[in-house]
Write a structure and sequence with these properties.
This protein is α+β, with helices and mostly antiparallel strands and 132 residues long. The protein contains three helices and seven strands. The longest helix has 9 residues. It is globular and about 40 Å long.
Length: 132
């Protein structure tokens, strides 16, 4: 059985909590904040302008060898200007749970991302994690 991995990143953004939330809670900005090498493209026709619990967003990603993969996530929790959570429903991971936290601090916003994920293919996924 393969492992569940986790990543945590913390960034300081020199803007108001309102401005940070408006930007990061808009599905239209997801492509702008995703690394370009992933070939991320939203393909949903009805994903809405702001995130809400129960929202489904569909994408194509090209994480490896430029091979397109279908990915569907659901926004499962939203507390405006505090956090939202997206979880994979279909896609390249066996598990994907991504928390986005926002906290007002001196000089701006502290944004914390916490991702728990599990790669497919059991021990082959663990080898791929080590290599890539």
């Amino acid at each position: 059985m393969s492992k569940v991995y986790s990543l945590k990143t913390v960034q300081h953004i020199p803007v108001s909590i309102e401005k940070a939330w408006d930007f990061f809670s808009s599905p239209a900005n997801l492509q702008a904040i995703t690394p370009s090498h992933l070939g991320f493209q939203i393909i949903s026709q009805h994903h809405g302008e702001k995130m809400y619990a129960g929202q489904i967003i569909e994408y194509k990603v090209r994480p490896l060898l430029n091979i397109p993969l279908y990915w569907m996530t659901e926004i499962t929790h939203v507390e405006p200007q505090r956090y939202f959570v997206d979880e994979q429903r279909f896609g390249p991971y066996s598990l994907w749970h991504h928390q986005h936290h926002f906290k007002e601090v001196d000089g701006g916003v502290e944004m914390t991302d916490i991702v728990h994920y599990k790669l497919p293919l059991f021990w082959l996924g663990d080898i791929a994690q080590t290599l890539f």
